[in-house]
Amino acid sequence: MLKEKICQMKSINEGLPKSVDLRFHLCGTTYPNKNYSIDRPASRVMCIEYILSGCGHVEIGDRQFSPKAGDTYCLPQGKDHHYYSDRKAPWKKIWINLSGSYVEELLRQFDLTHTYYFPALDTSDLLQKFQYYAEHPNGAHTTEKCVALLTQLLHRMSLALSASEQPARTPVQAMLDYIEQHETDAIRLEQLAAVAGKSSSQAERLFRTAIGMPPYRYVLNRKLTLACQLLTETGMSVRDIAAYLSFEDEFYFSGLFRRKIGVSPTHYRKTAKKG
């Protein structure tokens, strides 16, 4: 019998604008089983999966590869999927299923349309966050954070391409690279425009079109995600976290955190520790 932890993501979709063709379906963890095998003809969903242990075999149309622990792979929507666990070393993996033209557009933005296999790329932290948000939904804010996580996930996959496969960076990729490298800094639109080689208004418009939100909101979502992680995984004070993430002071940070997350940083830390 197949053993999996499966999280429904229906509540995440409730916060999406009707104009955005994106659906989060399921996320979860598959546990080792030598008989694990999936056939999905002309799949209606895209799957992104990371192998925690073991190995297996994947067939996408006429493409074949054998990912192992530490690898990430992507199963595109609209293609035939056949993948199965190695019988001697069955895999344990973490994954997410989603669909929609918004996903296809992001894949084009990151030049990932024809790349399915990413050896030695660890995406477990991002996939685990999807599970957390599926289990702890908080309305439109959680939806925004999941959209930002999806962009971050595909961006990481894009960065992992080898130098021979990596095309010239688009302006949006240049901005995302800068945010990735300076996520704890006070990032200004002018800085993003400079690395993109565009005016501020052009940079903001390109970013909003590609990512679905303005740069300041994307940066804020990343900072809040990191703040939640620091509150649960470190002993840093609220003041230190505010300073580390370049907020003007702990009072502004605490007020913003309460508005966006729904509780104060201190209450979030206590609740997370109890859970």
Describe it.
- This protein is an alpha+beta fold and 275 residues long.
- 45% of the residues lie in helices and 19% in strands.
- It contains 11 helices and 10 strands.
- A 6-stranded antiparallel β-sheet has the order 1-2-9-4-7-10.
- α4 (139-159) crosses α8 (215-233), α6 crosses α7 (200-211) and α9 packs across α10.
- The longest helix is centred in the middle third of the chain and has 21 residues, at 139-159.
- It is globular and about 55 Å long.
- The relative contact order is 0.11.
- The model has no long low-confidence stretch (mean pLDDT 91).
- Major pleated sheet: 6 strands, antiparallel
Strand order of the largest sheet: 1-2-9-4-7-10
Report the average pLDDT across residues. 91
Helical segment count: 11
Tell me the span between the first and last alpha carbons: 29 Å
| Class per helix and strand makeup | alpha+beta
Q: Rounded to an integer, what's the Rg over CA atoms?
A: 19 Å
Work out the helicity level: 40-55%
Strand content: 15-25%
pLDDT below 50 for ≥5 consecutive residues: which ranges? Answer: none
| N-to-C order of helices and strands | EHEEEEEEEEHEHHHHHHHHH
Number of strands: 10
Shape: globular
